[in-house]
Amino acid sequence: MSFAGKHAIVTGAGSGIGAALCRALDLAGAHVVGTDIGGGAAEATASSLSPRARAATLDVTDAGAVQAAVDDVVGRAGRLDLMFNNAGIVWGGETELLTLDQWNAIIDINLRGVVHGVVAAYPQMLRQGDGHIINTASMAGLAAGGQLTSYVATKHAVVGLSMALRSEAVPRGVGVLVVCPAAVETPILDKGAVGSFGGRDYFLKTQGGKAYDADQLARDILRAIERNKAILVKPTVAHAQWLFARLAPVMMNRLSMRFTSPQAKRSPSRAVDSG
C-alpha cells in the first residue's frame, strides 16, 4: 500500500503520537489534516510539514464537529482514506480520588471521541469501498494496572470497539487497526496526576526506564496499516507482557498489585492537564 496521495485526518495532532503520525504521513506523500482541541498546537505541527498539510481546531467530544471535519475532507478530496482517532487524556492516581467530572472527561475524550470518529468516517469508507480506521488505545487496553482505573476502562473499551468493528469492516473493504503502545515519549507522561501519582516514573518503570520513540511508533503504525494488522503492540517488552497477561491473567493481576502498592507512596507529580 502506498500512502502517496491518500487523504488522512489525525486527531490529537498537536503533540506526541498525533504529531508524529502527521510527520510520517506527510513524508509518505499523504494529504494530512492534523486536528487538535488547541488549534495553535495543530497549526504548529502542520507548519513544519509540506504545503499539503492542513490544520484544524477540533474537539473530539463534539460529534457534530467531528462529522464536519470528515465532511470537509470529503468535500475537498471526494474521499477519506485514513481516520486516526488518536486524541486522548490520562488520569493516574488512587481511584477514590477521581471525581465524577474526571471520569466523564476521560470517557468523553478517550471513548466517545473514538466513537465520534468511527460514526463520521466509517459510513463514508463503506461508500467508497475502502479506507482504514486507526484507533489509538494503549497497553492499558490489554492489561489492567492499578492507579489507572479510568484510563484502563476507556482503553479496554477502545480495544473491544476496534476488534468488533474490524470483524464487520474488513470483509467490506475497510481496515481497522488498534494501536496499543506502552510508554511513549510524549507530553502525556507528565500529565493527569491525581494525588500522589508519579506518572513518568510509573509508566517507565514497566519498560526498563526508557520511553518508546513517538516517530518510531508512527512508522510502525504505517507498516501495520500496510499489512492490514488488527493490533499493534509496542515496544517488544510490552508485547511480551501482553502475551503473559493473556496466558496467566490471575498471575498478571498479582504482579500488578505488587507493582502498584509502592507507587502510591511517591510524592505528588505535576498538575492535572489534558491532551
Write up what this structure looks like.
- The structure is a single chain.
- The chain is globular and about 55 Å long.
- Helix 4 links the parallel strand 4 (82-85) and strand 5.
- By secondary structure, the chain is an alpha/beta fold.
- It has helices at 16-27, 39-47, 63-77, 100-128, 149-169, 199-205, 214-226, 236-247, 249-263, and strands at residues 7-10, 31-36, 54-57, 82-85, 131-136, 174-181, 231-234.
- A seven-stranded parallel beta sheet has the order 3-2-1-4-5-6-7, with helices on both faces.
- It has one domain: 3-Layer(aba) Sandwich (Rossmann fold).
What's the topology here?
Layout: E1 7-10, H1 16-27, E2 31-36, H2 39-47, E3 54-57, H3 63-77, E4 82-85, H4 100-128, E5 131-136, H5 149-169, E6 174-181, H6 199-205, H7 214-226, E7 231-234, H8 236-247, H9 249-263
Parallel strand pairs: 1-2, 1-4, 2-3, 4-5, 5-6, 6-7
Helix pairs in contact: 1-7, 3-4, 4-5, 8-9
CATH architecture: 3-Layer(aba) Sandwich
Report the principal-axis shape.
Answer: globular
Structural class: alpha/beta
Rg from Cα: 18 Å
How many domains make up the 3D coordinates? 1
Helix content: 40-55%
Task: Output the CATH homologous superfamily.
Answer: NAD(P)-binding Rossmann-like Domain
Low-confidence stretches: 267-275
Largest sheet strand order: 3-2-1-4-5-6-7
Instruction: Give the class-level CATH name.
Output: Alpha Beta
| Main sheet: strands, sense, barrel | 7 strands, parallel
Distance between the termini: 31 Å
Instruction: Please provide the ordered H/E string of secondary-structure elements.
Output: EHEHEHEHEHEHHEHH
Task: Please state roughly what percent of the residues sit in beta strands, choosing from under 5%, 5-15%, 15-25%, 25-35%, 35-45% or over 45%.
Answer: 5-15%
Instruction: Return the CATH topology.
Output: Rossmann fold
Mean pLDDT: 91
